[in-house]
Amino acid sequence: MGIWGRHKLFATILVYYNPTNPRYLWEHFEQDMSSDFQLTEDSQSNQQIVYNLVLEKIFSNQSAAFFIDGPGGTEKTFLYKALLATIRSRHLIALATASSGVAASILPGGRTAHSRFKIPLDSNKNSICSVSKQTPMSRKEAIEALDRMLKDVNDSELSFGGKVVIFGGDFRQILPVVPKGTRQQQIDASLVSSYLWPTLTKICLTENMRARLDPDFSNYILELGNGMPPITIDDYVKIPTTMLIPYQNDTTSLDQLLDAVFNDISEYSANISNMMNHAILTPKNSYVDEINNLLIQRFPGDIKQYYSFDETIDASEQAIMEDFLNTLTPNGFPPHQLLLKQNCPIMLLRNINPSEGLCNGTRLICRNFDHNVIHAEIAIGHQTGKKVFIPRIPFLPKSDENSGFPFKRTQFPIRLSFAMSINKSQGQTLDFVGIYLPQPVFSHGQLYVALSRAKTISEVKILIRPISMEEPENNSTKNIVYTELLSIAASD
After folding, report:
1. pTM, rounded to two decimals
2. What is the pLDDT of residue 104?
3. What is the CB neighbour count within 10 angstroms for residue 44?
4. Burial status of residue 461 (CB atoms within 10 A of its CB: 0-12, 13-18, 19 or more)
5. Is 112 in a helix, a strand, or coil?
6. Fewer beta carbons below 10 Å: N end or C end of the chain?
7. What whole-number distance in Å separates Cα of residue 81 and Cα of residue 374?
């Protein structure tokens, strides 16, 4: 239960249940119900400077736009939560957004930027502050549209309509997706290429809390993110042997990776919190499906199968195309055959009800099954523990995707989440991370993101398929870093 849920529960007990000793009740749970105030007391020195600077702008009714930069472990999210708690405690409006559902679920009242600011717009001109997490994943056009929208809503020519806007992230991480885009096109789509970038006040958080646990590992990841380690041929870097699963063959080595991450999956099935903090990350959705299909077979319990209904847009082609459509899984679609078990982990693939925590990327636990509804429980973020119902919904390929055959799939908007794509994992911290690389990463920041989900080197295992069978002990993999983008981001 989140901090606001605890506040409401305490107030409800006082008003409706007439407790015999309310003082004892308060003193017993004071620490739990005061964590939002403790956020400000625990802030690091440079976090405190940022915190004070932002609040000064807000409470003096000044406009400002900040970009808070810092690698994983500098506790940017901690700072965002402190700001949101303080602003809201003064009965002011602060909007929390992120570029992905997973990242948004970590913030109190968080929503994806797309769902919060979509057109047609349901905006609130009384809001005074917007906090946006994982900004480097957003296209510059989205940020520029936000600027124009806030100017229109507030009838102001000031940047972002005179509001205080806080962007944050790490440009070492994954950039906006540009389908079939070149390196330069990806950089051009980034916020650093926007007319807004020079207008933002840049603040860098430097004190890394994770580094206290394993400073060598933290420094290694930071060097990877900066493109600094010795590079061999074609952007390949050496991986420390302590993190590697020795490659023997595809089947044996993959089994070893699964065992390393989920060494006793029956035990994990009884400990949901532990299971949700372990995951295998891999670059492509096809590899995600491969691992999930293996692990659902290991997971205890009876299989429940759900099949999609696939129909062509042109009804005359349905009879000859249906079997073929069943074999397709376009990007963002659930599979035709969905294999589930009670208490298995799943991930939502659509924004169903963002205000209730049901965002694209939200991780849940399957609790029960009906014919047309799945009973589930949210497993991450501030809605953890909430019971929800997930219906079947229709899926259509995006208009800009070349799917070959336009069709509609009606299926539950979920997939298994023992494994997830590296892109989907951004914004999460895990207790144990497996990284499956049958092929190298293919975009800027992916290796950095995968490794930085863990806190120490002992919490990571990597399986790399060798470039060739003549090199079965290969311990190198590709690390793609757009150093020219990092140079722009670091400049004033």
Report:
1. 0.85
2. 77
3. 18
4. buried
5. strand
6. C
7. 32
How far apart are the C-alpha atoms of 421 and 284, rounded to whole Å? Answer: 6
Burial class (CB in 10 A: 0-12, 13-18, 19+), 286: exposed
- The per-residue pLDDT for 5 is 62
| Three-state SS at 202 | strand
Rg (CA), the chain: 23
Answer yes or no: are the C-beta atoms of 334 and 395 closer than 8 Å. Answer: yes
Contact 44, 75 (CB under 8 A): yes
* Cβ–Cβ under 8 Å, residues 281 and 419: yes
- Tokens found for residue 189: 């789509």
DSSP state of 353: B
DSSP 169: E
- Contact by Cβ (8 Å): 161, 123: no
User: What is the model's pLDDT at position 122?
Assistant: 43
d(CA 8, CA 143): 35
Name the residue type at position 334: P
Report the Cα 460 to chain-centroid distance in Å. 19
Candidates 328, 325, 265, 324; CA nearest to 294 is 265
Per-residue model confidence as pLDDT tens digits over 88-141? 999 999 998 887 777 777 788 887 777 777 644 444 566 667 767 778 889 999
pLDDT digits (tens, 9 = 90+) for 170-182: 999 999 989 889 9
Q: What is the mean pLDDT of each run of 10 residues along the chain (492 residues)?
A: 64 77 80 58 68 92 92 84 91 86 78 67 58 83 92 93 93 91 95 95 82 86 87 82 93 96 83 87 95 96 96 79 88 94 94 82 94 93 89 82 75 96 88 96 95 93 82 78 94 72
The alpha carbon dihedral of 207, 461, 107, 163 has a sign of: positive
Give the model's pLDDT for residue 110.
81
Instruction: Write out the two tokens for 95.
Output: 């909007």
Tell me if residue 179 falls in helix, strand or coil.
Answer: coil
What lies within 8 Å, CB to CB, of 114 at 6+ separation is 142, 351
Q: Within 13 Å of residue 77, how many CA atoms lie on the same side as its CB?
A: 19
Task: Give the pair of three-digit tokens for residue 169.
Answer: 């992230």
Do residues 143 and 194 lie in contact, with contact meaning Cβ atoms separated by under 8 Å?
yes
- DSSP three-state, residue 61: coil
Residue 265: what residue type? I
DSSP state string for 224-267:
HHHT-S-B-STTEEE--GGGBPPPS-HHHHHHHHHHHHSTTHHH
